[in-house]
Structures are given as structure tokens and as C-alpha cells.
């Protein structure tokens, strides 16, 4: 349990603090010197990936309609798909995000078939 807690919080305790905590779980109080290291925890925010995916998708749709460089549209489409997939990996049960991704893929299919 305590190992997992350290992983989730990024706070590493000294060996002595861990021993005291295990031996006296109910009464052990932490002090500053019990902390060995504190690591930064970066959490992916799916809303940012979703916004980037939407922005890239809009740019790609404009490129498909108004530009002749197919390499540029394909690159924008690939980048948009990667951003959507990153967002979906973060919260796969978000139906709004899945629907947005499906709508974008549908629009691309229609535009590419013209």
C-alpha cells in the first residue's frame, strides 16, 4: 500500500520513515526529514488533447477544401487523429469525446471522397 501511495504522489519516504510507518501505522506522524525526495507528477489533461485535435481537424478540413497539396491535408489529419487518440486513451469512457472523433472521421471521409 505505501509503495503504491509513493508512486501516485511522487513523494518518496526515507527507509527509516517507512519502517516506522509500518511498525506504528496508526500513531506515526511525518516530519520534513521523513521525505527523501519529491518528484513532479505530470498528468495528461485530455481536454487539451481534444482541443488540439479539434483545431487540427478544422485546419485539415480547410486545407482539403482550399488547397491542392494532399501531403499537407494528410499530415494535418494524421496529427488530429493522434491528438484524439491521446485524449481517448486518457478517458476511454468519455462518449462525448468518442462521438467528436467519429464525427471528425466522418467529415474527413466525405471531404476526401469528393
Write structural notes for this entry.
By secondary structure, the protein is mostly helical. Helices cover 68% and strands 6% of the residues. The protein contains five helices and two strands. Strands 1-2 form a two-stranded antiparallel sheet. Helix 3 runs antiparallel to helix 4 (70-90) and helix 3 packs parallel to helix 5 (95-113). The radius of gyration is 23 Å and the shape is rod-shaped. The mean pLDDT is 85.
Helix percent band: 55-70%
Structural class designation:
mainly alpha
Shape: rod-shaped
Helical segment count: 5
Chain-averaged pLDDT: 85
- Taken as a percent bin, the fraction of beta residues is 5-15%
Descriptive key words:
114 residues; mainly alpha; two-stranded antiparallel sheet; 5 helices; 2 strands
In short:
With 114 residues, this protein is mostly helical. Helix content is 68%, strand content 6%. The chain has helices spanning 2-9, 15-23, 46-66, 70-90, 95-113, and strands at residues 11-13, 35-38.
Write the layout of secondary structure elements.
Blueprint: H1 2-9, E1 11-13, H2 15-23, E2 35-38, H3 46-66, H4 70-90, H5 95-113
Antiparallel strand pairs: 1-2
Amino acid at each position: 500500500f505505501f509503495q503504491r501511495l509513493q508512486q501516485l504522489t511522487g513523494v518518496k519516504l526515507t527507509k527509516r520513515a517507512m519502517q516506522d510507518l509500518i511498525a506504528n501505522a496508526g500513531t506515526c506522524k511525518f516530519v520534513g526529514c521523513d521525505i527523501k525526495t519529491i518528484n513532479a507528477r505530470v498528468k495528461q489533461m485530455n481536454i487539451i488533447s481534444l482541443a488540439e485535435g479539434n483545431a487540427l481537424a478544422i485546419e485539415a478540413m480547410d486545407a482539403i477544401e482550399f488547397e491542392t497539396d494532399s501531403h499537407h491535408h494528410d499530415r494535418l489529419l494524421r496529427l488530429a487523429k493522434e491528438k484524439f487518440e491521446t485524449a481517448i486513451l486518457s478517458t476511454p469512457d468519455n462518449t462525448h469525446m468518442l462521438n467528436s472523433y467519429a464525427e471528425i472521421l466522418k467529415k474527413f471521409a466525405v471531404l476526401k471522397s469528393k
